[in-house]
């Protein structure tokens, strides 16, 4: 019998949910990690015999699964948690989010990004696509990327761009203060940021036109060209609200995704956030061209934006990942909550309890998320895959008894049950803290910056302790 081989880490005794091609679940399994990669997975007894780890973690009572990809978030919104409740998407943007973005300064954005990245690591999120547009100067964008990578996460800072003001933006009432750069300047600044964080970086920079419906079309064309040139994705909000495709169609004679297809801009480099209001032709096109979609069910429910055509997109061949949409539109970056809301939202909209199964939600949060974000070989537990892993405690009363690991993870577990997160073989969260991060000081700093920001943006009315949604209706009745 051969001598055991050395490895860095052995996670043993867990229910290992591999999400591999065979969708293998090992009820008493182990995962061996050496350096940045997974080197073995299988029954615990087999791996104990084959490997001599520098460290062994006893994971009995836990599940080990691939790290989650948050396919669409806004970490800069971490200072805005709990503000803007009860507003539909149009009012939410005009009365809250645009003013928030305008008043945010670089220090605010950096603290918010660090806070959000720590929250993500604690929740088992190993890859983030951070759609960052406030502020979007290169120094801030690169500082945000550094902050995310310093916490230990991988992914992308998708630099939000507006470019030249369009007639649709004018009609939608976007504030002039949002427009700091021309289309050519936006593309040039993004190119600089992309060059500064090359292929060796865990966190890349992607070009990210802010929104297809009111953005400059030349900006979208340029973003797609930049993505192809640098071998990364490009990112945008797409048809989140019902008015988005309508306004684009009225102005340009085509719906947004149909225009992308006609312009040869719809391919595997394109990642579209939300994609709620797609018609049948657009749904088929997204799948046919292999584009990615970030489904954000919690924010879609929070803003009552609608339910994405999940089944149509999946059946058409689209890469459907899951996103939290950040802390500003729903409160938490919790992929367990997102998986569960995916099931409930789709089942409710279709009146079909089998519209989405928990296994599909798990796939979207892990292996499909890695495909969407361009993490080669990621999102699965198998030899050679990146060592992006999550250990989840399943012993709590809210999870017991565990009849099926996948069902327990999607329906019963939550971010607070994560006990360890590894990214690229490095422990980025364990035993209640992120190594090297003073989380208490970070939270205090975030509170201080948030209080200043609320005063600066004059958000006092939005932070009242008790805001009665029926108050306005009662007033209208009393004066009628």
The largest sheet is:
8 strands, mixed
Distance between the termini: 89 Å
How big is the Rg?
Answer: 22 Å
Broad structural category: alpha/beta
Number of strands: 16
What would you say the CATH architecture of the domain at 68-373 is?
Alpha-Beta Barrel
Mean pLDDT: 94
Helix content: 40-55%
Instruction: Tell me the overall shape.
Output: globular
Kindly report the name of the CATH homologous superfamily of the domain at 68-373. Answer: Metal-dependent hydrolases
Counting DSSP H or I runs of 4 or more residues, the number of helices is: 18
CATH topology of the domain at 68-373: TIM Barrel
Pick out the low-confidence regions: 474-480
Highest CATH level, the class of the domain at 68-373:
Alpha Beta
Strand content: 15-25%
Keywords: Hydrolase, Metal-binding, Zinc
Protein name: Amidohydrolase
Domain Aminodeoxyfutalosine deaminase/Imidazolonepropionase-like composite: 29-51
Organism: Streptomyces poriferorum
Describe the structure.
By secondary structure, the protein is α/β, with parallel strands linked by helices. It has a domain of 306 residues: TIM Barrel, CATH 3.20.20.140. 40% of the residues lie in helices and 22% in strands. Strand 11, helix 10 and strand 12 form a beta-alpha-beta unit. The longest helix is centred in the C-terminal third of the chain and has 19 residues. The protein is built from 18 helices and 16 strands. Helix 2 crosses helix 17. The termini are far apart. Strands 1, 2, 3, 4, 5, 14, 15 and 16 form an 8-stranded mixed β-sheet that branches. The protein is globular. The C terminus is likely disordered. The relative contact order is 0.15. Keywords: Hydrolase, Metal-binding, Zinc. It comes from Streptomyces poriferorum. This is Amidohydrolase.
